[in-house]
Request: fold
Amino acid sequence: MKPTPFYTKLAHISISILAIGFIAVIGKSVLAPLIIALLIALLLIPSASFLERKLRFPRAAAAFTVLLVITGGVVGLMVLLGSQMSDFSLELPAFQKQLMLSLDDLQHWISHSFNINNRQQAAYINQTAETALGHGTEFISTTLISLSSSLLFLVFTFLYTFFLLLHRGLLLRFMVALFNENHSPVVLEVVERVQYIIRKYIVGLLLQMAIVATLTCAVFMLLGIKYAFLLGLLTGILNVIPYVGIFTSLVLSAVVTFATGDAAHVLFVAIAVVCVHLIDGNYIMPKIVGSQVKLNTLTAVLGLVVGEMLWGVTGMFLAIPVIAIAKVIFDRVEGLKPWGMVLGEDDMAAAQVTIPADEELPPLE
Reply:
């Protein structure tokens, strides 16, 4: 049998990538919560299996219990963040006054440095404000739609996670039945490694988020920054998005500090966030998260860009774990190994993730 020509392979690959992208765009409302639910389910399988084996919980009761616990944790975090935002909103008048004073000083500096008089600056600001007010109704309606969509998104994510945990044995048998019986060991190995890597990755990500938030809060409190706890908590949460999240938290922290402090505090905040990011990138993430997901920087950045183009912020959150799952599959399918190679690091020996001998994976059945 003649080998398939390269141009034929290239055509097949191009058509497959376009088809996957098209399906991802039109199926966002179904696929996005389903993938998030899959990641959560992979994280919760050990807990659900423990309740079933040790405490003799029925599968449905075990799935609902672990989901209820993690939902309570998320709600608690949101309540904590909401309380901090509520305290911040009480000082909005003072915040706006300080911001206007800072903008007034900036206006005088621009006038003195660039010979643009205050009247020209005021005209430009008024024009911008009128344009923004003209779109005010549209913005409010879009915000309300977005809130209702987010609530629906969370409800479907909860339901998908519950049913994935409930029917995980059926889904495993389905995946094994899709392939030839000779390939069953490979399929089971891929499932086990995906479960192991994703579980370790998500736990490491949560631990990294907690450490970064704690470090940032401590540094901001030592510097005497107002709303240190709120800014530190936001920095830890936004840090989940690689590269982009830390920049967003830096801008947000600088703006809030600029309106509530002085230029020296803004400089200290910027230095503090950069230092925390350096500690995170060189020590925390490689030890906690990076040891489980071995992707090169180019792949990670491209994944973030493509994820944002397809699904916005949700796509940026899901880009890294989805690529990590794809790499596990590529590394164990003969015809796809080159793709697994290009997604990983230069040193492929170091990129192989092995499950420790004492690591017991809970059965999917």
